[in-house]
Write a structure and sequence with these properties.
By secondary structure, the protein is mainly beta. 6% of the residues lie in helices and 38% in strands. The chain has 1 helix and 7 strands, in the order ββββαβββ. Strand 5 and strand 6 (96-104) form a beta hairpin.
């Protein structure tokens, strides 16, 4: 293979409120910890087991830092795309230490809130819309504020029982 790929995709829950720091020239840097869990049933005992991994995420992208600062709270479910980076640092005793982090920097980075704006820990489906774009429900139509104000235009007349005709 001619090239290589460094891409990390995580879907998990934020373990604590994000920490926002600023560089000397005022640019924000967001640090957060994300937990991913997998569950399985033990073959011998039959009981359910769970394993949780904690991931350190560092956001250098200024736009994403603003979203993290304003909307991401402990318990929020996030979808993240970034790259792995290992950095070397020294502890108080002068020993070399290494930390591997998921870094969101540049155009290849994505952060999507899966439980909506300001709903940390909620289980609402769909992502948050940051940028003024209209939000859409699971059927591709814009949700109305009340069920009686539904429009009968061709754009919003998408049938909600479409899946009844699918043969599988």
């Amino acid at each position: 293979m001619a090239g290589s790929v460094n891409k990390v995709i995580l879907i998990g829950n934020v373990g604590a409120d994000p920490e926002i720091r600023r560089t000397q020239d005022g640019r924000p840097i967001a640090n957060l910890r994300i937990a991913t869990s997998e569950t399985w049933r033990d073959r011998n005992s039959g009981e359910r087991r769970e394993k949780t991994e904690w991931h350190t995420v560092v956001v250098f992208n200024e736009g994403l830092c603003k979203v993290v600062e304003q909307y991401v709270k402990k318990g929020a479910k996030l979808y993240i795309e970034g790259a792995l980076q290992t950095r070397k640092w020294q502890d108080q005793n002068g020993n070399d230490r290494y930390s591997t982090e998921v870094v969101l920097q540049g155009f290849g980075s994505t952060l999507t809130m899966l439980d909506g704006r300001g709903e940390g820990g909620g289980d609402r489906r769909g992502g948050a819309d940051f940028g003024g774009a209209p939000s859409y429900d699971d059927y591709g139509s814009q949700p109305s504020s009340s069920s009686s104000s539904r429009s009968s235009s061709s754009a919003s007349s998408f049938s909600r029982d479409m899946d009844d005709d699918i043969p599988f």
